[in-house]
Write the C-alpha cells for this entry.
Amino acid sequence: MKLAILGGGGFRVPLVYEAVATAATGLTVDEVALYDVDSARLRTITAVIEGVGAQLTADGRATTLPRLTATTDLREAVTGADFVFSAIRVGGAEARTVDERVALGLGLLGQETIGPGGLAYALRTIPVALEAARVIADVAPGAWVINFTNPAGIVTEAMRTVLGDKVVGICDTPIGLVRRVGRLLDVDLVAGERGADGRGADGTVASFDYVGLNHLGWLRSVTIDGEDRLPGLLADDAALEEIEEARLIGKDWVRADGALPNEYLFYYLHTAEAISRITGAATTRGEFLAAQQGDFYLGAAESCCTSPLDLWRSTLHEREATYMAESRDEERREEDIAGGGYQEVALRLMTALATGTPERMILDVGNAPAGSDAPPAQRIVPELTADAVLEVLCVVDGDGVHPQPVAPVELGRLGMMSTLRAAERKILEAAVTGSREAAWQGLSMHPLVSSPELGRRLLEGYVAGHPEIAALLGES
C-alpha cells in the first residue's frame, strides 16, 4: 500500500510517518512518498523521519517501517498511490504573515483560516489544489484523497469538482471535542464498533449530533440509551471546566446557546478581543511560526551537535503548546494538547476504507453525493446547496464514507453557515476564473468583514502582498 503526502516537507509530516510506522490501527503501509516543491525542506524532514524510524525500531514500537521516498515531481509521488494526503501550504508561513497583517492593518481579524486571511489563503491555494487533483485523477484514479490543506472546507469542495466523493476533508478539532465530552460521560462516542446504529460492545447505544462547516460547527446533542446527556453537562460548571471549548467561549454562553461549539467559534463570538490580543502580541501567529520553523530548518541543516529529530521534537512541543494562544488566559493544558492529532484521524480513516472496519468520524463531505442534483429532502442540510461541503458525523467502512443525518439546523446557525459559504463560493469562483470582481465580493461578504470598501482594500493588500494572487487576477 502506498501513501503519498503532498507538502511532504511540512513540519508536521513526521507525525504521520510515526503513526503509520507503529500501525496503531493495524494497517500496514509499504511506502510513504513525500512530495514538496522545496527540496531543502524535503531533505530536512527526510532526516527527521529517518530518526523517527530508528528510534521506533530501537524502542520496539515499529511494526514494518514503510519505504520512504522524496521527490519534487508530483506525478512521480502520486503514481500508483492508494491514499494521498494533501497538506500543501502555498507561499509557506511567510505568506501567512501577509494574510494576517493585511487584515489587521484594516482593523479586521488576522487569522489563518478565519476571516479574510482564510479567504486569501484559499484564493492562492485552490488553483494548486485543483492541479494536484487533476494529476491524481490521471495517475492514481482509484486513490482516496484526504485533505488537510486549510481552509479545509473550501479546498475540499474545489477538489471534489475533479475527484468527486473520493476526496474527504479532515480536521481534528471536532473529534477532540467529542472525545472530551465522552470522557466526562464515561462512554466512547466514536468507537468504531458502534457502527451506524451507535450500539457498542457493552450494549449501550450512543450517538451525537455535530453539524457545521470546517471551523464553524456545533455539538448539539449527545444521546446515550435514548437520553440526551448534553443539557445536564451544560448545567454543570465543574464539567464545563474540563471542556476546553467551554472555557474559551464562556460557560454562560454555551449554556444559553444549548450547544458546545468548535473552538474556532471564539473568533466569531469574541472578535474584538481576539483582534486586541493578536495586535497586542509581539508577533502574529504566522510571524511566530515563520521564525520558529525557519530556525528549525536552518538549525537542522547546520547542526553538528543536536540531531534533527531532537530539534524537531522540542520545536513541536513549543508549537503545540502555543496553539491559539490569543484565545487563552492560561497556558494550554497537557490534556488538551494530547488529543491524537490530525495524523491519528487520517490513519483511522485510511484503515476503515482499506479494511472495512467501521469508524465513526467527523469529516468534511458533500451535502449530497458528488455530481448529483439531489433535491433538498435528500441533502444533509436541505437549505444548503447539494455540492456544499459540510462537517458532520460519518460512518466509514470498506464501501466508503457515509454521512449520517442531522437534526434541523437552527436559523442562527444556518445563517452563519450560509453567509460564510456564500463568501467562500465567490472566492472559489475567483480562483477558477481569475475574476477580480468575484474575489472582491467574496472578501466583502465574509461575516467578519461585511463591507464592500473594506473588501476592496483587502483585495488591494493581498494583490500587493501575494504574487500568486496578483498573477491569478491578471495584475502581475
